[in-house]
Design goal:
37% of the residues lie in helices and 12% in strands.
């Protein structure tokens, strides 16, 4: 099921649905949307991919902040470190608030 609601509106339902799987719950609380990714292999050898923000940024090496769940300082510190590690990474800035 893919929801078109903003992530902050999806979180309560997602947390309830995923409460039996703490590994997937941690996927929601990441400083960058690119890091909100979980992949697991079930007992029947089927892969399950959980990517609430999609996979496009991952494949395009784009780092996008997750201001709903992480402080700006955390994102910027991680972004700086990751860009040193992967110079081709395109880091998007923190969204401005009006």
């Amino acid at each position: 099921m893919i929801s078109r609601l903003p992530l902050d509106e999806q979180l309560p339902a997602l947390r309830t649905t995923l409460s039996h799987n703490p590994t997937l719950l941690t996927v929601l609380d990441r400083a960058a949307t690119t890091c909100c990714l979980g992949i697991r292999l079930d007992p029947h050898d089927h892969w399950h991919v959980y990517a609430p923000h999609g996979l496009a940024d991952i494949f395009n090496l784009v780092l996008r902040p997750n201001p709903v769940l992480a402080p700006r300082e955390v994102y910027e510190t991680k972004a700086e470190r990751w860009q040193r590690q992967w110079p081709e990474l395109r880091v998007l800035g923190w969204p401005e608030t009006n």
